[in-house]
Amino acid sequence: MTTPSRRSTVFGITFVVAFCSIVYELVYSELLTVIFGGTVVRYSITIGLFLFSLGIGAFAYRYVDADPANFFRLEVYLALAGPLGLVFIVAVNAVPVPGSQTVELVAETVALWLSHLPIVVVGILSGLEIPFLTDLADAEADADLGALAVVGSLGRGSQRLARGLLGLLFRVPDPDETPGSDEGADDDGSFSAILGMDYLGSLVGTVTYALVLYPSLGLIAAVFVLGLLNAVAALVVYLLYRDRPAGDSSAVTGATFGTGVRALLVVCIVASTAYAGALAADDRVESELRTLYLEEGIEDEYPDRNMAVSVTDHETTRYQDIVLYEREWTGSGATDPFPDGPETCLRLDAAIQLCESWVESYHHGLVDVPAAFEPLADRNLSDDRVLLLGGGDWIAANYLRDHGATVDMVDPDREFQRYAKEHPFFRRYHDDAYRDENLTVHRQDGYAYLRETDRKYDLILLDLPGARSDDLLHLYSTEFYRQVRQHLTDDGLAVTWAYTRYGFPKHRSAYLTTVEAAGFDSYLPYHAYGDSNGDGRAERGELFYALSPGPTPALDLDSGGAYLDRHRDRYASLEWRSVPSFRGVAPNSVFHPNYDIVVDYGP
């Protein structure tokens, strides 16, 4: 068995370190998106900062001794900085900041800036790698492998083919007319070879992260995998060059693995062991970090931190981050909103979706009130076809089953649907509604479904996640609502929950402008009501909009069932309104986004 040459090993190291560097940035981007929202902004800033930092690192290389021992140091630094960067971002955003609203805003801004520091650190260190590796490859004159030494030699025929194809676009030299050239020789140069392996490693890293690391391991375990790979790369460099004589002409310089490097070797071995242990105890490590960030972050949303939060379950699917937690009132001088003890709540991608105290009132507002609009009320939905966009927890489907409706439910997240089928919290409310013979489930994006189907609906219910990220911009766009309008029957209605004007004025104006641009002329705002704190009195809860492109039907309060009977006086005076126009506010479009429609977009 032939031992790989040092040069081919250098190419292999290039692939590994490029894989790690790009995935570090993807991990940071995803974490920053979870914390601050705004996927496009976070990824764009991360990529820009990373590329700029790569340039700083490459420029700084001219001041660094081209010694293999220095490259060993570099990989140890990356093995430490990469994983610690994630911990740093979590810690910075988990520190409670008591004080006035101004103080909190300043603290959030400082946390936002500090959270981007790991991007710069990893970027600068990564920028040093390519010049180092190029010099190491140049120094290894004992190998005759070409630019793709790790994946196999191109061969004479392949090199002729490559020259022929490139010759269609560029002028290429004829090897027979070039002095000293030979088609079997390495005439590509170390720089192009190293750069090619760097690009290949980056490609494999991005694909592997998206399809394997993030879905199966999550952010925390993934970053420990990367730290372990950097540590292994450092150890390989140490073993490769530790015995290189100072006068060896194939070395960049004499390798100086002195006492300081041996100390770093110990650090590298300890870090490798720690990362391996963290991966073995992934659940426990993730739980600790999750507690540090998620619980502190949720508690910080409440004035004076008057709510104690305990995360009970955390799952990540291909589409979203699922957090179940218990919250308990700890404030004084006010009525305890949870007299029966802590209540369980659900968050999807950091946006609160439902809590025990209002899960039933929310679904009364989403399903029972729309079912009372004429002429739907005359038929009790039994002859109507309803489109439910979202609703992967199956609760809305259960309420629709009570009305005898034929339902198409469109939700892409199969994993969340499976999770909600079995979890005791959701089973209390959905009563195995997924078994309903009148329910058809379409596992795809709602926007895509509306573009593909020709079916018309009497009622379209939008049980969608909140607009906390620009991942969902297409579901709050004129194009989407135009599709919703086109799939309504002549007297059909669309109903959605909505953000209030008091909490999110910019979102509301952008949203209503978008709805109007899509062809909805009228809307009817109403609230759901329920006894959320057990004091026997109904409180106003979630806000809903009924949207109509034409007819403005009245509520038939006599056929609305027990819920509308209890709250008849609250719904008797509802009136349809014209969708308002807002001066200077643009609609949100897929091709021309209005980011005001995204809430909590960061400081």
UniProtKB/TrEMBL annotation:
Pathway: Amine and polyamine biosynthesis; spermidine biosynthesis; spermidine from putrescine: step 1/1. The active site is at residue 463. It is found in: Cell membrane. SUPFAM superfamilies: S-adenosyl-L-methionine-dependent methyltransferases (SSF53335). This is Polyamine aminopropyltransferase. It catalyses: S-adenosyl 3-(methylsulfanyl)propylamine + putrescine = S-methyl-5'-thioadenosine + spermidine + H(+). Residues 290-550 form the PABS domain. Keywords: Cell membrane, Membrane, Polyamine biosynthesis, Spermidine biosynthesis, Transferase, Transmembrane, Transmembrane helix.
